Each structure stands twice: as C-alpha cells, then as structure tokens.
C-alpha cells in the first residue's frame, strides 16, 4: 500500500506507449475501503481531498428518498435512477425526467442547470433533423435538479434559487452527505459544480466509505432507519436501470449491465470515478466495498479512468474473465490507434494493489 506526502498525492496509474517507449503517463490516486471503514488498498494518497463532481449524485438524491418522496410522488425505479444520473440526454432520458417532473408538480422551466452540447451523436442527429433546440431537460444533471425541486415542493420550501448553498435543501443535502462520509460537515469543502449546484470535496477514503455504506447501510451503521432504507432504494434503482444512470455505451452503464446487482458505478467530471461493491460481490460473505479514484489531469482524453477502474476490479477478483472480455473496449489494456486505425501503442495500467 503506497502512502505519499500531502505535497505529492498522485502517483503513476496509466501509461500510454508509442512503439517501444512510454510516451505519456496519467497520474492519480485511489482508495478501496470496506463498509467497516478499513482501508484495504490504496495508491497515491488515499486522503487526498478532491471534488466528487457527479459521483456525488446518489447522495444528493438521498434526502428525497429518505423522506419517502418516491412513495409520495409514486416514482418508478427508472425515475429514481435518473435522479442519480449523468445521463446522455437521449429521448428516453427526457421522457423519464418529464415523468418525474409531472409527478412532482414541477416544470422544466424551474431547472437552473442550464444547457450543454450533447455527446450522444444519434440524439444530436435526430434533434437536428427535427429542428429541435437544446433545453434544460437534455442536460445530464436534469434528473438531479428535478429531484432537488421535488424535495423543495414536498417540504413547502421555495423553489426559487434552490441551488444556493444556503437554501434549506442544499444544507440538508450537505449534512446528509457528510454523515454518509462519517465526517463533520465543517470538513466538507463546498464548491460550485458545472450545473451550478453545490458540489463537495472530501478525502478519497471518506468518499469510498460513503459508497460502501450506500451498498450495505446496515453493516455500515447508517442511521436513521429511513436513511438506511433509502440507500437500499437507490442501489436497487441504479442496479435495475443502469441505462438511466449514464447512457448507451457509457462506462457506468456497461459496467453495471455486465455485473448486475454486484457493482454500482458513478463517474464524475475531471477524472473522478466512484464504485460500490455490494455484499457478496467478491464471493459469499464478502463485505461491501467502496472505491474512489481521481485522475489528476482530469482525464480529458478519457483514457485513464475506465482503465484504472477495471484494473482495480480485476485485481480484486470482482469480474470474471468473460466479464472483462465483454468490457475490453474500456480497458484495462487498450490498443492505441492513429487516424488510419493502425495500432501504434497501448494504454495500460501500471500499478498493483497491496491488499
């Protein structure tokens, strides 16, 4: 297990070769923590403080579910999964977010997430042919924002400026997240996410612990009972509808489809990836685990995060050889192609777990 000083929290995780030499290196850090709080493995500094970005979303949805909002509004598991999602903005995603909004009595016009270009090209082309413009419901965070508004509506709180850090909804979310991380709320660093809602930075260790507790709230001592039950609802929703959590051919979706009911995956911007292994995922009687990964350069080329995730899962024994083969397009070893589709090198992990 490697532990570095605070001044150098990141270590080499992924090499990119060209020919016979290493041309580039992606640095990062990760922590693997069990539901009882034991640090089982790490690389770089497991206590490096960094923003979870969209990996926070299951916890941002937790206060709504804890207060039985899904029962009050008769939300489906697909709608709950979308509340935890960074979705691709497909027509299917928009139908589900509209359904959530209709049930909660809120409108797309209430959303303060803004708009952004879509990466799912079939949807981009279909919208172009229809002459359809981007609207907030296509935003990858529209489910999260809709859930925040639904909670405000349910608690008779103002919907205006629901994303302000001092709004009661955001204070409630922050307190819930801190408790899931087993941290005093004062130790959670608050910033502004790309969608304008508050986002949180905590040590990788505590983020991993939160995901382990999400996957097994009873063993993790999650209190009160309503929160533990809400954790089970969220894990059930994400497991049942991984297509809502991300989208077609996205890593989070494909990983959860490949290991149904065993692994939760929720990535975030700037090279963050969180995963949760449910009890029994490593064999009968195995504890729930949480994994938090940060790629220090932000992984804008999307070369490192999935490769690191799959290598950790491979070394833990969480995926079978056939499951790894089915995910080979994402890593852990991937050929590097030039523009003529000639193999010129390789993207490969360069770390080992010490368990």
What's a concise summary of this model?
The chain has 355 residues and is of the alpha+beta class. It has helices at 57-66, 69-72, 77-83, 91-104, 121-130, 142-154, 168-180, 204-215, 225-240, 242-245, 251-258, 305-316, 321-326; strands at residues 11-18, 21-34, 39-43, 49-51, 189-192, 198-203, 263-268, 272-277, 289-295, 334-337, 343-349. Strands 1, 2, 3, 7, 8, 9, 10 and 11 form an eight-stranded antiparallel beta sheet that branches.
Structural account:
This protein is an alpha+beta fold. It has helices at 57-66, 69-72, 77-83, 91-104, 121-130, 142-154, 168-180, 204-215, 225-240, 242-245, 251-258, 305-316, 321-326; strands spanning 11-18, 21-34, 39-43, 49-51, 189-192, 198-203, 263-268, 272-277, 289-295, 334-337, 343-349. It has 13 helices and eleven strands. Strands 1, 2, 3, 7, 8, 9, 10 and 11 form an eight-stranded antiparallel sheet that branches. Strands 4-6-5 form a three-stranded antiparallel sheet. A hairpin with a 3-residue loop joins strand 7 and strand 8 (272-277). The model is unreliable at 1-5 (pLDDT under 50).
Coarse shape = globular
Total number of strands: 11
Structural category is alpha+beta
Calculate the mean pLDDT score and round it. Answer: 96
Describe the largest sheet: 8 strands, antiparallel
Number of discrete helical segments: 13
**Measured distance between first and last alpha carbons:** 7 Å
Poorly predicted segments: 1-5
Strand content: 15-25%
- What percentage of residues falls in helices of 4 or more residues? 25-40%
The H/E string reads: EEEEHHHHHHHEEHHHHEEEHHEE
Radius of gyration: 20 Å
């Amino acid at each position: 297990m490697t532990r570095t000083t605070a001044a150098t929290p990141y270590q080499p995780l992924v090499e990119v070769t060209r020919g016979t030499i290493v041309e580039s290196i992606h640095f990062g850090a990760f922590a693997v923590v069990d539901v009882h709080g034991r640090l089982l493995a790490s690389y770089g500094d497991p206590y490096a403080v960094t923003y979870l970005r969209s990996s926070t979303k299951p916890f941002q949805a937790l206060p709504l579910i804890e207060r039985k909002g899904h029962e009050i509004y008769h939300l489906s598991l697909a709608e709950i999964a979308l509340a935890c999602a960074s979705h691709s903005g497909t027509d299917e995603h928009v139908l589900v977010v509209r359904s959530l909004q209709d049930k909660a009595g809120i409108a797309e016009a209430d959303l303060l997430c803004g708009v952004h270009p879509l990466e799912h090209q079939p949807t981009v082309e279909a919208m172009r042919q229809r002459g359809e413009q981007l609207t907030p419901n296509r935003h990858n965070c529209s489910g999260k924002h809709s859930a925040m508004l639904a909670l405000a509506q349910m608690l008779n709180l103002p919907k205006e400026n629901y994303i302000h850090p001092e709004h009661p909804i955001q204070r409630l979310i922050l307190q819930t997240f801190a408790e899931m991380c087993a941290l005093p709320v004062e130790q959670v660093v608050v910033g502004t996410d790309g969608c304008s809602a508050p986002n949180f930075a905590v040590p990788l260790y505590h983020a991993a612990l939160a995901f382990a507790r999400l996957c097994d709230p009873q063993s993790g001592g999650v209190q009160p009972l309503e929160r533990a039950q809400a954790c089970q609802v969220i894990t059930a929703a994400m497991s049942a509808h991984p297509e809502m959590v991300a989208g077609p051919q996205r890593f989070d979706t494909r990983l959860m489809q490949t290991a149904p009911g065993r692994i939760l995956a929720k990535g975030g911007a700037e090279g963050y990836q969180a995963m949760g292994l449910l009890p029994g995922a490593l064999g009968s009687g195995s504890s729930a685990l949480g994994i938090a990964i940060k790629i220090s350069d932000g992984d804008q080329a999307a070369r490192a995060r999935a490769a690191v995730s799959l290598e950790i899962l491979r070394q833990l024994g969480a995926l079978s050889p056939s499951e790894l083969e089915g995910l080979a397009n994402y890593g852990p070893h991937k050929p590097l192609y030039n523009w003529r589709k000639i193999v010129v090198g390789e993207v490969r992990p360069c770390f080992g777990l010490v368990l």
